[in-house]
Amino acid sequence: MLAACTTYGPGSFAPGTPMAEVVQAMGPPTGRHEQGDGAPRLEFARGPMGKHTYMVDFDAQGGLLRWEQVLTENRFNAILAGMGQDEVLKRLGQPSQRRALPYQRQMVWSYRYESAFCQWFQIGVDLQGRVVDTGYYPDPLCDRLDPNE
To answer: What is the bridge-based pairing of β-strands 97-101 and 106-112?
Structure first.
């Protein structure tokens, strides 16, 4: 019996591919979001600390429209103070890490991504679920990596 395998990214799917076929090949989505017209947008985060999240958009009949790898600086730079957390999740997907800052009364969402520098993008979200601030910071995972290994 062959083990089931999943496709890492959606690049091999043609427009119009049924949503069920995409999910069967890519595995269960890590999130589901609604587009403005109510059509589904599925989120496929890759790896627990992965640097890729694919948003795959479908039409109302469940046919593939388009996909995008959303963990990029252009996408991060479009996240603005005052934006709601649901909008952030729809644009970027689930963060790699969520950490509470009780004194500041907010959560910090961290996103790893591919870059020439060892950094991650972070978003401060207040208790009302609104973006307070954003920025790029050194990724603590890099401190654990030995360049001589």
So the answer is: antiparallel
- pLDDT of 2 reads 42
C-alpha span between 110 and 90 (Å, rounded) = 15
- Nearest Cα neighbor of 21 from 32, 3, 7, 35 is 7
First vs last C-alpha separation in the chain: 38
Model confidence pLDDT, tens digit, residues 14-31: 999 999 999 999 999 999
The C-alpha atoms of residue 145 and residue 5 are separated, in whole angstroms, by 29
* pLDDT on residue 147: 52
Predicted model pTM: 0.86
Q: Report d(CA 11, CA 71) in Å as an integer.
A: 16
% the chain with pLDDT above 70: 90
Q: Check residue 1 and give its pLDDT.
A: 39
